[in-house]
């Protein structure tokens, strides 16, 4: 991890060489999810509620998912842009270095301008919490923190899986965006508003439901039954990255140079 934080320090200094550009890009990133949130607001302004979910309850779900996505997109950008490394033959150089390929790719690129998106999500989060009558407890606060951490792991895991495909496809394939951008768009709403097969897929296969929907039921006191199961569901999101790492190692072992 010392190497990873060295990458962070180097790339942060590089991006801050053009500070005006950096802050303008960060400012622009603030308004990207803001437009989506505005659409959410007008939706509830028109219909009032969706399947028993109020605007601020959905706003809480929205903010957690977007915070997790912005942090993951910043810190795991190396995997999201991995196809360029394969096409240019740069991954061959990574392989001969005496360090983990995972750490090297993870630290190869950061998008610190995503701080604007993170800030916007934090504003929505504060707005939602202030307007919800939640009976806070230590367990609920811990659950909320694990939800955000779990989301980071899930999005990072999907980036890793998409990057692994590049070992065979060379170029990144757009279908991966179904599970990154598409997963973000779906999971910013409670999953019970969708068809059952969508809810099951994004709970048991790609665990976005374990990141936001299920633990959110506990935080909002909508649980009927064993509460501990809802508290523990975000841990499945954290564990999701383990099989993703095994898939990555499998891809590295079967990598053949592009001959660039």
Number of helices: 16
Instruction: Tally the beta strands.
Output: 0
Q: On the 0-100 scale, what is the average pLDDT? A: 84
Shape: globular
Written overview of the protein:
- With 260 residues, this protein is mainly alpha-helical.
- It has helices at 2-15, 19-47, 55-75, 77-80, 82-87, 90-95, 101-106, 115-130, 138-169, 181-187, 196-205, 208-211, 213-219, 227-232, 234-239, 241-253.
- Helix 3 (55-75) packs across helix 9 (138-169).
- The radius of gyration is 19 Å and the shape is globular.
- The model has no long low-confidence stretch (mean pLDDT 84).
Give the secondary structure arrangement, pairings included.
Layout: H1 2-15, H2 19-47, H3 55-75, H4 77-80, H5 82-87, H6 90-95, H7 101-106, H8 115-130, H9 138-169, H10 181-187, H11 196-205, H12 208-211, H13 213-219, H14 227-232, H15 234-239, H16 241-253
Which structural traits does this protein have?
mainly alpha; 16 helices; 0% strand; globular
Give the structure's gist in a few sentences:
The protein is an all-alpha fold and 260 residues long.
């Amino acid at each position: 991890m010392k190497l990873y934080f060295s990458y962070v320090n180097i790339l942060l200094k590089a991006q801050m060489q053009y500070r005006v550009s950096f802050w303008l890009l960060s400012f622009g990133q603030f308004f990207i999810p803001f437009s989506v949130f505005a659409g959410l607001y007008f939706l509830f302004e028109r219909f009032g509620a969706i399947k028993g979910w109020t605007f601020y309850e959905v706003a809480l779900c929205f903010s957690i998912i977007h915070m997790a996505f912005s942090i993951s997109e910043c810190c795991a950008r190396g995997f999201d842009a991995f196809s360029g490394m394969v096409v240019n033959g740069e991954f061959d150089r990574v392989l001969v270095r005496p360090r983990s390929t995972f750490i090297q790719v993870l630290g190869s690129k950061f998008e610190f301008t995503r701080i604007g998106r993170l800030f916007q999500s934090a504003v929505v989060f504060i707005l939602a919490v202030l307007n919800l009558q939640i009976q806070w407890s230590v367990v609920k606060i811990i659950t909320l923190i694990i939800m955000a951490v779990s989301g980071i792991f899930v999005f990072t895991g999907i980036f890793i899986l998409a990057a692994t495909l590049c070992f065979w496809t060379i170029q990144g394939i757009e279908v991966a965006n179904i599970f990154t951008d598409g997963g973000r768009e779906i999971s910013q709403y409670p999953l019970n508003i969708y068809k059952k097969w969508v809810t099951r897929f994004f709970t048991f296969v790609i665990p976005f439901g374990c990141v936001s929907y299920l633990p959110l039921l506990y935080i909002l006191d909508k649980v009927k039954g064993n509460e501990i199961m809802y508290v523990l569901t975000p841990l499945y999101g954290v564990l999701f990255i383990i099989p993703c790492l095994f898939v990555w190692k499998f891809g590295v072992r079967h990598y053949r140079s592009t001959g660039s």
